[in-house]
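During the no-cost extension, the postdoctoral fellow (Dr. R.K.) reprocessed legacy sequence entries with the updated structure-token encoder. One reprocessed record is reproduced below for audit purposes.
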Amino acid sequence: MAHIKTWFGDIELHNDEIVHSRVLKADIDAMAQRLQREDFADFDKECRGRLRETAIKLEVVSSEREYVSLLRAVMIQSAKERIVTAFAKPEARIIQLIDGIDDIDESINLLSERLSEWCLLTSETSMPEDLLEAFVSSPSAQSPLAQEFAGSISRLCELRQEIANAIDLEMRTTAPNLSMLAGELLGSRLIARAGGLGSLARMPASRIQVMGASKALFKHIKYGTKPPKHGVIFQHPLVRGSHPNIRGKIARILAAKIAIAARLDFYSKRAYPELLSQVEKRVGELQTAVRNPEQHEDKTP
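Re-encoded structure tokens follow.
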């Protein structure tokens, strides 16, 4: 006797004949929940080809057209429930906020470039270093359109700061260890790239280290170039501000601690401030070794 799970119910077969069935009679919500709850990976092609016939025989639907219509409605409802579940996660708001910052940064850069070119065409004086500050200090010297353009950029900068403040609050609540170790913005960017805090917690440190350097990684795999030493964690002050010779080592140390911090945040929600001190201690040893290579070699057995 074979037991088969379908999206509309359970069926027991004996010699290709239905001996028992427990099906859902056109209950779209129940069927959508069943799609998310059950695993249909072992469903063979022969059974899939007979699903319409089986559904009609069990009076789940009355025709093939009704079968297609019901299946479409169930799939749409299942997709809606998946979206609601995904956005109900605490880190969903963090992902949206950091993506918003990236969009605003791109807009600010494009508008600032356009404004500088505009001013070069209309002004005979040299371009000031801080263009927005020049507009604020002497607005009458510029045209009304240019003033409005600069005002839009200024408002975007203020909005960016408000979003960054919101990310700080969300990260300290959702991922306190990651926030303390990597910083709020970098931590949120790691969560966004991983697809969620749970995905980041299950990710190995080696992948976290090169996250964001996929082009360089695939170039290394395909053409044999040097492998990337770091990805987005280069934005961390300990990596960015260190000597180039030890950036790879520091990135590896930081990625290992970030992996631990993400797991602590996802599974325990307890703060462990010693993680940051451990990283700073190890980084300090590496930086000392770089500044005093001869002394370090003497200590090495």
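Residues 2-87 form a domain with the Nucleotidyltransferase; domain 5 fold (CATH 3.30.420.220). The longest strand covers residues 17-23. The remaining legacy entries will be reprocessed before the final report is submitted.
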